[in-house]
Description:
Number of strands: 0
Number of helices: 6
Structural class: mainly alpha
Strand content: under 5%
Amino acid sequence: MTAAVALESGYWSSLGEGVGAILLYALVGLVLMLVGFYAIDLTTPGHLRQLVLEGKPNAIVVTAAGMLSMAFIVVLAIFAASGKLLEGLIASLIFGLVGIIAQVVSVRVIEKALGIDIGAALHSEAYTPAVLVVAAAHFALGLVVAFAIL
């Protein structure tokens, strides 16, 4: 007794489309994370990239929180697109850019309202607990923007 294994008609085409969608969303996600990083870098005292490369713990925490929040926005935009590739890519890009602006402005307001000197914290060689408030603000605002997409 032999069993024949056959792929459905259009399998390879569907697989190719899925791989293409993954690559396109990954590219949009990467672009948004880079734009988000540079937006944070431009609006914080000092050169964030250099501080991260130097291993400054507070700069690393803030950068990581910003990246995670961007990922939430992209993931929910993809989910909201319901399988429509072009709409999902456009929504991810637009919502991501709006999210970046909302995050940067809101986090700077929170820092001012709480009296956090983020410049000093980012340049510090030692971990500063107040940086968790800034990281949490990035994370929370990313969640708010992401769920607003739905």
